[in-house]
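Hi Y.,

Following your request, here is the sequence exactly as I used it, all 174 residues.
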Amino acid sequence: MRCPVCNFYDTKVVDSRLLPEGLSIRRRRECEKCQFRFSTLEDIELLDLTVVKHDGTREAYDRGKIETGLHKALEKRPYTAENFQLLLHAIERDIQKRKKREITTQDIGEIVMNRLKGFDKIAYIRFASVYRSFEDVETFQKELGKLLSGKSARRAASKRHADTRAAKRVKKLL
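Below is the corresponding structure, written out as tokens. Let me know if you'd prefer a different format.
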């Protein structure tokens, strides 16, 4: 790897550390010529993956397209760069789990929406409105209703679980 200061062709790795999510390695490097130290980040790259578009055309997978879509959906939303990278890694892991050489843009969109739903609800609605081409307010309201009903269903299930535990404790006392 070339030095970013003097452009010398050879640098040595001084230290390597696995990042917490386990999918990236941060390497500390030193230039052999000027002794400048700098860090590099090594990520998993999805190779040999073809994306099949709606019109049937095929193109190579491009991580940048997912990043751009996520940045647009998360615009003016509170998130850290670290959390963004974790979200991106999770999406790519879900793509890799399919173990296929081709994936449709529909499949990628669904994976992104599933991950965004747990990451940021507003970003999820923004992404879904573009991805699913909401054409009117009713369609938007239906999707918002699904999001809210899922949340209330989880609350109800949690409450039922708590009530069941309480009932078991009362039975033990009797």
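The chain has two domains: 1-43, 46-133.

Thanks again,
Q.
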